[in-house]
Automatic annotation (TrEMBL):
Alphabetized Pfam families for the sequence: DUF446
Spans traversing the lipid bilayer: none
Domain of life, per lineage: Bacteria
Organism in which the protein naturally occurs: Marinobacterium weihaiense
Entry-linked InterPro entries: UCP006257 (IPR007384), YqcC-like_dom (IPR023376)
Domain YqcC-like span(s) in chain numbering: 7-102
Name of this protein: YqcC family protein
């Protein structure tokens, strides 16, 4: 399986898991919120909103256009922090995000 295929499958699984845990939003945030310069848009978006509205679509576009994927990904540590206090069962989602990090990491 190619890296693009691997990441594509993970994007679908992350989306499905977020929907299963009611962490998926039907309304997009304000465009200004998406334009934040902060890592993960921490000043304007919840982490799960950042995943839904920025991370997944951006990676999906790279896959569709067969463009190079990011060479490095460190999403899991942030996800762990954010998910700790949440009432939802985020174990599977965290595992999927960890797999996404690994899939995006390039081993030289």
């Amino acid at each position: 399986m190619s890296r693009h295929e691997q990441v594509s499958v993970l994007l679908i699984e992350i989306r499905n898991e977020m929907q299963a845990q009611n962490l998926w939003q039907s309304q997009p945030p304000e465009p200004a919120a998406l334009a934040s310069r902060e890592p993960f848009c921490v000043d304007t978006l919840d982490f799960t909103e950042w995943v839904q509205w920025l991370l997944l679509p951006r990676l999906q576009e790279l896959i569709e256009r067969q463009l190079p994927l990011p060479q490095n990904s460190e999403i899991q540590p942030m996800a762990e922090e954010v998910f700790k206090p949440m009432p939802e069962d985020t174990d599977r989602l965290l595992a999927l995000i960890s797999q996404l990090d690994q899939a995006l990491r390039v081993h030289h």
